[in-house]
């Protein structure tokens, strides 16, 4: 290997086979037909080589930009697995450096420490995050969104109004893509003592399932108190987003567009996942009923993909992370003003997921299925209660908005069907069985 261009050629040849094996790759549902470079930035020209690469991945009629950081120093060329090379990215942010078209910046009034090594975190995720010491976490977005990423925009806005339920934004990496200044990385305060909501919730479900005779409120690992506090935190973040970026009311056209978008998504998902077909009539009816929601529907910037894996419990309370929205949704949709009930619906779905994922691949067990439902009902109610308490004077109580909330929940479940089909086919039964339950078209 002689220089950056040879390295890039070698990597490009291997990408069609390598990409589908990466957890963060969002296109596992169809083969990669071609990969072409969109931009190359040489961060180090020798010993070792370090090249920032944005490629366009073609799959049938889909074309999407993905970010890679490649080196000749590790076998698979993925420089994010090399602690020292990862550390160089942090150093560049600390120095407010510009290298070959990439701009590394720390937030004003923030001093970033240099000389730290970075280690990738290994949880289920759509991007690659590197942790430095116990202070910093740097997210490298994998599938790129042209323009500023909403994750950075919303968290900066929340920080400006003093929101207590996010990790402090500390810096960013941007580059030009298709003529637009595009966020490729985001540095944040790392919370080393944090436990994510999914881990806590699934531990609680396991505790309940292990108890033959006790109910959800009687076992040691009851989660309802946390679920209620989490509801309060989410409502507070919604109120903070309103304060920071404003809000509006949806008109009839907006509501019509929302319903049509849900139906369009359903039609597209059922094309690739025929298991969804039996539920289509009931789903369409539920989406149409969203038009009957009484009173005005407030819209604002929201999290957009809220679930238990996006919330961290620290000693000081709950934090929300990852304001990027659904990785599969178009950017115009992700940055539009939307009802905060979508986030409530996302979290309600997640309680359902936490309760039912333990049943995946297990033989049918009526007793366990009853316990899963009991856990989900208790925690969904506690979350909604907490949300309503904190939202009373700002965003509003989600109860009494039944049709809309139900439509959003089902729309999210349809999204999850597509997500699981493309990423974790063995989990497809989780959203499918929820759709069956919510629409009354099945029992499990
Ligand atoms: N500020 C933070 N402090 C501690 N852990 C974090 C922080 N931000 C993210 N994480 C951990 O990293 C994981 C992935 O972060 P996330 O922003 O959800 O990335 P992705 O967009 O790849 O899903 C989270 O599930 C969480 O475990
Ligand atoms: O966290 P991401 O932005 O990567 O979100 C995507 O992946 C999530 C899974 O990691 C997926 O969430 C679904 O599974 C979760 C359990 O793993 C569950 O808590 C969520 O309720 C469920 O939607 C998310 O939909 C997807 O966008």
UniProtKB/TrEMBL annotation:
* GO MF terms held by the record: ATP binding; kinase activity
Q: Residue span of the signal peptide, if any? A: none
Give every Maltokinase N-terminal cap domain span.
18-89
Instruction: Name the EC number(s).
Output: 2.7.1.175
Q: Which keywords has UniProt assigned to this entry?
A: ATP-binding, Carbohydrate metabolism, Glycogen biosynthesis, Glycogen metabolism, Kinase, Nucleotide-binding, Transferase
Q: What is the main EC category here? A: transferase
The membrane spanning regions, by residue number, are none
- Which pathway features in its UniProt record? Glycan biosynthesis; glycogen biosynthesis
Enumerate the Gene Ontology biological process terms: glycogen biosynthetic process
- Reactions this protein catalyses: D-maltose + ATP = alpha-maltose 1-phosphate + ADP + H(+)
Q: How does it assemble?
A: Monomer.
The similarity annotation says: Belongs to the aminoglycoside phosphotransferase family.
- The name of this protein is Maltokinase
Q: Which organism is it from?
A: Saccharothrix tamanrassetensis
